[in-house]
Amino acid sequence: MNKHILITGAAGFIGSNILNYLFSKYPKFSFTALDALTYAGNLKNILPEILSSPRFKFVYGDVRNTNLVDDLVGESDIVIHFAAETHVTRSIHDNIKFFDTDVLGTQAIANAVYHHKKTVERFLHISTCEVYGTGLAKKMDESHPLNPHSPYAAAKAGADRLVYSYYLTYKIPAIILRPFNVFGPRQHLEKVIPRFITSILLNEPLTIHGNGKAKRDFMHVSDVATVIDLLVHAPLEKVAGEVFNIGSGKAVSVLQIAKSIEKHMKVSKSQIRFLKDRPGQVSTFRCDYSKIEKLLNWQPKKDFDKSLIETIRWYKENKDVWSEQLWLRKVSISLPDGTVVYH
Ligand SMILES: NC(=O)c1ccc[n+]([C@@H]2O[C@H](COP(=O)([O-])OP(=O)(O)OC[C@H]3O[C@@H](n4cnc5c(N)ncnc54)[C@H](O)[C@@H]3O)[C@@H](O)[C@H]2O)c1
């Protein structure tokens, strides 16, 4: 079956991996990528055979541009909305863009989906586990309260509930996905796993906010791709208006991640250093994905250590892609006591 899919934020980390996956798996599908190519977007993330294909169109533009978004949504059967400002620390440093892009950009997309409700078959909104804040239970399911800890998380929570309100009010065919932490090839150096890997490649210390005991639930980006694939094909009546968590279901501390990366990269003397903690830090995230497991039989497949080794290989082999991001690895933020630190 031919489908035309609009992917926003397709030049970023997850969006490009999903585009690369769906494009090669479905030779009859065609795609439009809408991306503003902010510091986080890079056309090198999209495979050259996609960029030159007649089944693909790249549109340089902003998700807040309502006329442009309306035209592109009007041409599409399926909309997958990744575009966002995504870095928690940067949201502490400069939060305006986060509310602009993450909330108003999502509103522009949701309004366009409403306007083209007769032709848009489904709209996948990519939210995040950050909307929950620190886990109040051992594992967090979709009914966990929303207690965002950072401006990024608050903006994403606004977008998440905006989409849900449009589903209730206007019956748009929306599905909300809340991935826990994701890693893999093409992730920006500001995020923790690429930062650790490239610090070792550059002979620099691995810096950790706080004591490193904060736990996260990390899954490989290919596990996100299998969920998106399922949600693109699932019977709409089963998934419309639903929120789905996805993650590994396992919590690993930031310190443990740093140590594993040092082990896999054969660092003989540990270079781990500790910095003052980041304000709004979340202490534990662990995903309960049983809802989507029961409904669509999805489970994460990739082993954490094997995925880490593959990711390390990608960063070793693609310095030309990530070296352009080096100057963006650190952000200055003011702590509540007034001191300025670089994270
Ligand atoms: N990376 C994770 O661990 C993770 C986890 C859960 C959810 N998410 C969500 O998944 C989505 C993608 O995350 P990512 O890590 O790939 O992000 P990213 O920062 O790597 O990429 C974001 C992309 O959006 C584009 N963009 C930003 N502002 C835009 C605008 N105004 N108009 C058009 N394009 C714009 C950027 O150019 C970039 O290509 C986001 O919505 C994020 O909140 C990410």
Automatic annotation (TrEMBL):
Pfam families membership: GDP_Man_Dehyd (PF16363)
GO biological process: nucleotide-sugar metabolic process
Superkingdom assignment: Bacteria
InterPro entries in the cross-refs: NAD(P)-bd_dom, NAD(P)-bd_dom_sf
Domain NAD(P)-binding: 6-308
Gene3D superfamilies membership: NAD(P)-binding Rossmann-like Domain (3.40.50.720), UDP-galactose 4-epimerase, domain 1 (3.90.25.10)
SUPFAM superfamilies, per the entry: NAD(P)-binding Rossmann-fold domains (SSF51735)
Signal peptide annotation: none
Protein name per Swiss-Prot or TrEMBL: NAD-dependent epimerase/dehydratase
